[in-house]
Amino acid sequence: MDELLLNAGSNIVEVCSRLMPNEIATIITDKETLEIGEVIKKFAEDIAKEVNFHILEDYEERPLLYLPKEIKKDIKNTNVTYFAVNSKSGEIHKFRGPLILLAIRHGREIHMPNIDATIMKSGMQADYYKVASLTFLITGIASKSKTARVTSPEGTDLKVNFSKKTARWVPDTGLLWYKGMWGNLPGGETFTCPENIEGTMVVNGTLGDFFCEKYGDLSKTPINIPIKKSRAIIDEIDCKNDKLVEELRQYLNQDENSNRVGEFACGTNIYLKKFIGNLLQDEKFPGVHVAFGNPFPEHTGANWSSTSHVDGIMKDVSLWFDEILVMEDGKFKEEELLIFD
């Protein structure tokens, strides 16, 4: 087996989840991601006292719009749940959401929707102890800030306000060691639900949910999304790809909060060198992404919810927290932040 795949598997099981010999692991994968599921299984079986393994297509044709009872039963007795699956439209609310909530109630959950060999050989090769150090540093700066400003040469210009009473910044370090924890791998971001955001975001990186698999890298067809009072102005969304605009407008109309900004985030994985057109990794690239829909209220402290969630990544941004310039043209200000090599 490929040495990089094996190193990634070791990173997932031994470092990021810190699976212990007295623990039970449950791996959930699908036919498209089976090789990665098997790599995780190999390392889990070397450590855990018991390993459960599920392939989604064994239960029903995708998209899977419920949590199968067999998977539910295993998760209830599991310390670490590994989710390595190719995302399908409609699964977030009815399948993935309930799975996460159940997994963190009984243990911890390692979430890897749309993980592929490219991610295993790039983002999952990172030193996650160093990623965690930078993530905590940016989280500390952000947590003390009342505002943020984001600009880019492409035309992004956003002004953001944070509520000291309700906003909680959530560091996603890639180190998920304790009961109740969950996060995406590759790791490396910090996020919150902003109190208000105004301006224009130009998504010239990757768009989330099923859009990333369908449309990939958007550098040649960027999407302009105007935002007023934290809501996307749906009728004014603009892009050269008319089909993409149509689908995004439909997505943002799913419920009363589908077009509301639920996440403001800063990617902190300095080991990523290029965008790959896959949100799971691209959102961790040093930069900023904004998501519409579900604000993960159980983590951010938001007092509202949504059944949808779609991230938009902006490349080459400059980012200020209050008056502190932490990133310029997509690169962290190393002197100010004392970033290590």
Features of the shown structure:
29% helix; 11 helices; alpha+beta; Thermophilic metalloprotease-like; 2 domains; single chain; eight-stranded antiparallel sheet; five-stranded parallel sheet; 341 residues
Task: Walk me through what this model shows.
This protein has helices at residues 3-16, 34-47, 69-75, 91-106, 117-120, 128-143, 211-215, 242-251, 279-282, 297-300, 334-337; strands spanning 24-29, 50-55, 80-85, 108-113, 147-151, 157-161, 170-172, 182-184, 189-192, 196-203, 223-228, 231-232, 261-267, 287-293, 309-314, 318-321, 324-328, 331-332. An eight-stranded antiparallel sheet has the order 12-11-10-6-5-16-17-18. It has a five-stranded parallel sheet with strand order 2-1-3-4-8, sandwiched between helices. It has a five-stranded antiparallel sheet with strand order 7-9-13-14-15, covered by helices on one side. Helix 1 packs across helix 2 (34-47). With 341 residues, the chain is α+β, with helices and mostly antiparallel strands. It is globular. The model has no long low-confidence stretch (mean pLDDT 94). It folds into two domains: 3-123, 3-Layer(aba) Sandwich (Thermophilic metalloprotease-like), CATH 3.40.1830.10; 127-337, no CATH class.
What's the arrangement of secondary structure elements?
Layout: H1 3-16, E1 24-29, H2 34-47, E2 50-55, H3 69-75, E3 80-85, H4 91-106, E4 108-113, H5 117-120, H6 128-143, E5 147-151, E6 157-161, E7 170-172, E8 182-184, E9 189-192, E10 196-203, H7 211-215, E11 223-228, E12 231-232, H8 242-251, E13 261-267, H9 279-282, E14 287-293, H10 297-300, E15 309-314, E16 318-321, E17 324-328, E18 331-332, H11 334-337
Parallel strand pairs: 1-2, 1-3, 3-4, 4-8
Antiparallel strand pairs: 5-6, 5-16, 6-10, 7-9, 9-13, 10-11, 11-12, 13-14, 14-15, 16-17, 17-18
Helix pairs in contact: 1-2
